[in-house]
Amino acid sequence: xxxxxxxxxxxxxxxxxxxxxxxxxxxxxxxxxxxxxxxxxxxxxxxxxxxxxxxxxxxxxxxxxxxxxxxxxxxxxxxxxxxxxxxxxxxxxxxxxxxxxxxxxxxxxxxxxxxxxxxxxxxxxxxxxxxxxxxxxxxxxxxxxxxxxxxxxxxxxxxxxxxxxxxxxxxxxxxxxxxxxxxxxxxxxxxxxxxxxxxxxxxxxxxxxxxxxxxxxxxxxxxxxxxxxxxxxxxxxxxxxxxxxxxxxxxxxxxxxxxxxxxxxxxxxxxxxxxxxxxxxxxxxxxxxxxxxxxxxxxxxxxxxxxxxxxxxxxxxxxxxxxxxxxxxxxxxxx
Length: 335
Prior knowledge:
By secondary structure, the protein is mainly α.
C-alpha cells in the first residue's frame, strides 16, 4: 500500500499518510527512520484492511476491545493504559509482543521511577490486552516476593476493638468472623440476611470472584448483627455511621485506632487474613476455608495459610518416615 511522507508546520518530525483516513507522526526527524516507520505502518494498514490480519491492529485498538469485553471497571488497568498508549498505542500488537519491545517498555517504566511491583502491574495489563487479541506471549516480570499476610492475635484484636468507634468495631468483628472483603461486607443489606437460619447471601456483583456466595453465620456474628440493627433500625444497610451507609472502613479513624492500640502496621484487609488465620489454626480444613473466604482456587489458600496448621501434615510426615524405615529393612534383607 502506498504512503507519503510530509512535514507539518511547527513539528520537527515527519508524518506519514496512507490513503485518505490514516495520518500518523513517525516520531522522528530522520528521513531514513521515517521511511522505515512509514513502510511498517502502511503494511499494517494493508494487512488489516485487505487480509483481515488480527495481529496487524494497533495496540490502542486491541486495548479498546479488551476494555469493553467485560463489565468490570478495570480502573487500575485504565491508569496503566493512560501511560502505555502514548508510547505504544499506534504500534501493531505483533510488534508490542516482541521480547525486546517489552523489555524497552519496562526500562521506560523504571526510568520514570516505578517500583518493580508497579512495573509488573503494567506488564500484566499489556499481557491481558495481547491475550485478548490472540497473542499469548511470556512478558518479563520482576515478581517481587509477596510478604506473609498480616494477622492479629486475639489479644491484639481485642485491643484494637477497644480503640475503634462503635460502627467500625462492629464492622471489624464481622469481618473477622466472616472473612468477607471490605466492599462485599459494607454493601450488605438486611434483605440478604436470614437471622433465623443464621446465613447471609452476597451477590456476584459484590464479590471479587464475580460469583454469588451464601455464608453461614456463627452465634457471635448474629450478635454483631443485632447490635448493628439497634444502631440504625431504619436503614436498609447493615453497616452504618450516623444512620447512613459507608463504603470505606480503612479510614483515618481506623488508622488512628491502630496506632493507639499499638498493633500496626495494619490495614482493613488484614482483618480478613486474621479471620482466615484463626480458622486454620483452629483446625478448619483448608478446603472449607477456601469456600468460606471466597477464594478462586485451593492453591491460593494453601500458599498463604497452610504453614499455620502443620498438624494436617503430621500423618503424611510419619508415613514418609515409616516408608524410609521399610526400604532400609528391605535393603538389609537383600544383603
